[in-house]
């Protein structure tokens, strides 16, 4: 099988030097720092640990910092406790300051009432819950629950097919990018890319903040929105590499189209001599199990056969029970 690299996300389950060293021995080539969680000081210590582990083995190790991007989220719930949304019941998302319940929750996106209309679909928690918009006021989006379930606080809000009037980089992203460049990392992943201009702006910032005598951190455009699929060719021309970010891509488009888009993204990246990373739920069951499903093994193998340069592990290594075993399993699939 064509050789591919393994990119592992570091988190509470894997951010110590001994664990990272063992993961390197199991087959990790690069590590990911997810800026959606944790603080700069925590991430800085993780990077120190990762570099120390690599030095102890006399091995190269690339570091990728993944910027959060303009992720729309719900706000807090009363007591921090999950609530249950029942099918057919009313539910409001508001820009007002409220204590969240099973009837109403706040959002960090102040423009939400301006970008949705009656009949619009709103998805919560990576598509696990589905709402239909009934009416909109200056501050409130009143909905009916179409697909119910449990909602925890600070979960993602997706608006499929809605073009959002927000920049690709938030104020937090600018601060995080400046911090990442000071750490001399190797790759910067830009979330929720929509068009080529997003990549151009990010690359200019990377060049401006670059302190290396030779080269710079490479830009990875995360393809996870319908708009990015529409502008794929232009985006590929402006970035150093792309990531098939299957999580939000499946929510923003549809689960059924993810395999189609994955193959298209890989094919176009390879044709244009750009590296490509395939990510999200590659070995998802290994968060709780020491063994993958047959479907997961086939998924990893097919991504490699299609031409992906790297496969990425997310929660499997960041917070799962078996981070080292997951890396070892992925390496065995790649080498089979």
Description:
This protein has 2 domains: 5-69 and 167-335, Phosphoenolpyruvate-binding domains (TIM Barrel), CATH 3.20.20.60; 78-158, PK beta-barrel domain-like (M1 Pyruvate Kinase, Domain 3), CATH 2.40.33.10. Strand 7 (121-124) and strand 8 (129-136) form a beta hairpin. The chain is globular and about 60 Å long. The model has no long low-confidence stretch (mean pLDDT 96). It is built from 12 helices and 16 strands. It has helices at residues 17-26, 40-57, 112-115, 171-182, 196-209, 226-230, 232-238, 246-252, 258-271, 294-306, 315-318, 323-335; strands at residues 5-9, 30-34, 62-66, 83-85, 90-94, 104-106, 121-124, 129-136, 140-147, 149-151, 157-158, 187-190, 218-223, 241-245, 275-279, 310-313. The strands form 3 sheets. The protein has an 8-stranded parallel barrel with strand order 1-2-3-12-13-14-15-16, surrounded by 7 helices. Helix 1 crosses helix 2 (40-57), helix 1 (17-26) packs parallel to helix 12 (323-335) and helix 5 (196-209) packs parallel to helix 7. The chain has 336 residues and is an alpha/beta fold. Helices cover 36% and strands 22% of the residues.
What's this entry about, in short?
The chain is of the alpha/beta class and 336 residues long.
Features of this protein?
336 residues; alpha/beta; TIM Barrel; M1 Pyruvate Kinase, Domain 3; 2 domains; eight-stranded parallel beta barrel; six-stranded mixed sheet; 12 helices; 22% strand; globular
């Amino acid at each position: 099988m064509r050789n591919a690299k393994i990119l592992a996300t570091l988190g509470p389950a894997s951010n110590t030097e001994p664990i990272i060293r063992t993961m390197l021995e199991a087959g990790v080539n690069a590590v990911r720092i997810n800026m959606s969680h944790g603080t700069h000081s925590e991430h800085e210590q993780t990077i120190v640990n990762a570099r120390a582990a690599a030095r102890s083995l006399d091995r190269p190790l690339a570091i990728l910092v993944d910027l959060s991007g303009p992720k729309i989220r719900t706000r807090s719930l009363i007591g921090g406790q999950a609530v249950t949304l029942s099918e057919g019941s009313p539910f409001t998302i508001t820009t007002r300051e409220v204590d969240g319940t099973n009837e109403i929750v706040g959002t960090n996106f102040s423009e939400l009432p301006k970008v949705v209309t009656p009949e619009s679909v709103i998805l919560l928690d990576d598509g696990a819950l589905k709402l239909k918009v009934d009416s909109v006021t200056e501050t409130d989006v009143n909905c009916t629950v179409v697909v119910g379930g449990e909602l925890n606080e600070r979960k993602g809000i997706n608006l499929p097919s809605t073009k959002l009037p927000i920049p690709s980089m938030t104020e937090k992203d600018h601060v995080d990018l400046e911090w990442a460049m000071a750490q001399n990392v190797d790759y910067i992943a830009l979330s929720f890319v929509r068009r080529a201009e997003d990549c151009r702006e990010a690359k200019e910032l990377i060049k401006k903040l670059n302190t290396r005598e030779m080269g710079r951190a490479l830009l990875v455009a995360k393809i996870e929105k319908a708009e990015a699929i529409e502008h794929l060719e232009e985006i590929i021309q402006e970035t150093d590499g792309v990531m098939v970010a299957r999580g939000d891509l499946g929510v923003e488009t549809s689960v059924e189209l993810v395999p189609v888009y994955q193959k298209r993204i890989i094919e176009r990246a390879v044709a244009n001599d750009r590296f490509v990373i395939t990510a999200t739920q590659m070995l998802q069951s290994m968060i709780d199990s020491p063994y993958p499903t047959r479907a997961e093994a086939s998924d990893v193998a097919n991504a490699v056969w299609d031409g992906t340069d790297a496969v990425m592990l997310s929660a499997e290594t960041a917070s799962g029970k078996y981070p080292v075993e997951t890396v070892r399993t992925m390496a065995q699939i790649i080498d089979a």
